[in-house]
Structures are given as structure tokens and as C-alpha cells.
Amino acid sequence: MGKLYHSITELVxxxxxxxxxxxxxxxxxxxxxxxxxxxxNPAGSHxxxxxxxxxxxxxxxxxxxxxxxxxxxxxxxNTGVALASFAAAKGYRFKIGIQNGVSVxxxxxxxxxxxxxxxVPKELIDGVFEKGMEAFKDxxxxxxxxxxxxxxxxxxxxxxxxxxxxxxxxxxxxxxTDGKVDVFVGGVGTGxxxxxxxKFLKEQNKEIKVVITQPDPEDVVNPKLDGxxxxxxxxxxxxxxxxxxTPMAPGNFNDEYVDQYEFVTYAETLRAIHLLAEYEGIFVGxxxxxxxAVAIKxxxxxxxxxxxxxVLLPDNGERYLSEDLQKVRPELxxxxxx
Length: 338
Ligand SMILES: Cc1ncc(COP(=O)(O)O)c(C=O)c1O
Prior knowledge:
This protein starts with 16 loop residues before the first strand and ends in a 5-residue tail after the last helix. It has helices at 21-26, 47-60, 78-90, 104-112, 122-125, 128-131, 133-144, 159-176, 192-204, 217-221, 266-280, 286-299, 330-333; strands at residues 17-19, 32-37, 70-75, 93-98, 116-117, 150-152, 183-187, 209-215, 240-241, 244-245, 260-264, 308-313. 39% of the residues lie in helices and 16% in strands.
């Protein structure tokens, strides 16, 4: 029987999860690692899931429609790419504000899908994510000014972001591992993916351990580290310190389902990316590398012998070629503990 699709949006989700058997052997890992390859989504990242859910849930509630609504978002990249693609596929106007420091590839993709890139004054943008939700709202209010039917997609606190992963990504991991997953590793940008997946997995089996990847603060505050402009973690940030949840934690983040926070250095991130390319022929982006590094460290632990560690890999390395993510840097990477 034929299988003719009618929209690119029908191809979102059902991404493959792959066990990294050659990597396990090469590093003599005690645990097993399976990576969920989210770059198989049609616009290239896990953000496709939430972009589609946010649009379609609002459509079902009767809040938006292509003939009258303008979608509005301020985003560092992958969300913008996903929203731009699906806005085009569904016939919506989409206004986007872009954060400083976005990879050239991602901003050019947004341009390709013909989203309307809006200039937001520098004083509103500077440090907006660090300042927290109020500053973010000011940016969105600015972008919605003079728009009659603007619908801010609000990735940071829109529950439909979490729902996308609770309804789909979590169940896919559970089903594709036959319920055998023991540990889940993911990072936090908006918190949507990790929160939705963890909630679903813990509801199936509360013994599943959830480990959150956090960029080492040293590597983030030393932006000139070995020529890396912004610490290079792209998409994830620290949400927990010794005093608990930090002001950078977005509205969608909830630590109810978190068992452990694990710091990862940029050296470990690069090493993980290059090992995956070398042994598995898979080239992922920096947030994926960071979570993979955490998964590798988990898989080296005696307590995780024969355990299955599932790790979310949000996008692929082609989105960061302009930043030389592919380049092996032996002096830096030998500092990694694996
Ligand atoms: C490449 C990348 N990885 C990870 C994340 C974090 O995912 P989430 O927003 O679901 O927490 C993002 C976005 O925020 C991202 O663009």
C-alpha cells in the first residue's frame, strides 16, 4: 500500500533510538547507552515536537488559525527553525526575534523558511535569559506591539511544550526499549523535553533514574576558553546550584522528577561528540555531546553495570559547522575523564 504524506508536519516524531555498541566496547563501559536521534525530525531537532504541539493544541482550542493569527517567538534557534518551517507548512505568518550568538546555520535556516525576523532593541535582548521570565516577557510584549492577533508561542512556560514530550518522546523511549530503560539523561533549555520525558518515564517505573546535564559554570563564565566563544553548550544551561534551583530555570522546568544533576565540561562535551562520530558514524550538536558525556560517565559506574541508559540527542553537528564543532582538539579533549 502506498504512503503519501500530505504535510511535512506529519513527519514529526517517531525518531530512532540507537544503542552505541562500538562506543561501549571501545570505552569498556559497564552500562549500555542508547541515543535518541532527534535530528531525524523534519526540521532537524527535538524542537519540532513542541513547535507542532504548541500550534496544534492552540488550533484545537480554537485560539489560532492561519487566516488571522501571527505566531510570535523570541528564540535562540532550533525553536525558531521548527516554528518557521511549520508556520510555513500551515500558512501562518511568523514573527521571530533572534537572540545574540545563534549559530549562522540556524539563523540562515529561519531566513530560508521566510519567517519575519524582527529587530528587538539591544537593551531588551542583552542577558534576557539570565535575567529571567520578566525580562523575557518584555521582549515578547515589544514584538507583539501593534499586532492585532499575535499568539506568543511562549516556549519557556507553555505547558504544550512539556505535553509534546509527555505524549510522544517519553512513550517512544519506553516502547522502543521495551520498558527496559534504567537511566534517562537530558539537558535543560526551556525544560520542556526533560520534564515531559521524565514525568512519563517515572509514571511507568519510578525506579528509572533521571540525570540532568548541566554545563560546568567554569566553562560558561570563561567564554574565551580555547577559542570557544560562548562556552559552546548551545541550548542548555545550569538550572541548579548548591542553593537549589537558579533564577535561570525556566517556567517549564520542574525538578520533581530529577534524581541527580551532573556537571559536564566543554572538553568532555567535545570528546563525546568526536567519539560518537569516530565509533558510530553519528555527528551530533553540542547539547547532545554534553548529555552523551554524562551518559558515558554514568555507564562507567559499577552501579550501572548492564543498565540501559537512554540519552536525548537534540540536534546534529551540521548546525554548528561554522563553529568548527567537528574539529578534534587533542590538548583540550585529553582533559576529559574518559
Ligand atoms: C540544541 C538544543 N539542545 C537542547 C535544548 C534544550 O531543550 P529543552 O528546551 O527541551 O529543554 C535546546 C533548546 O532549548 C536546543 O536548541
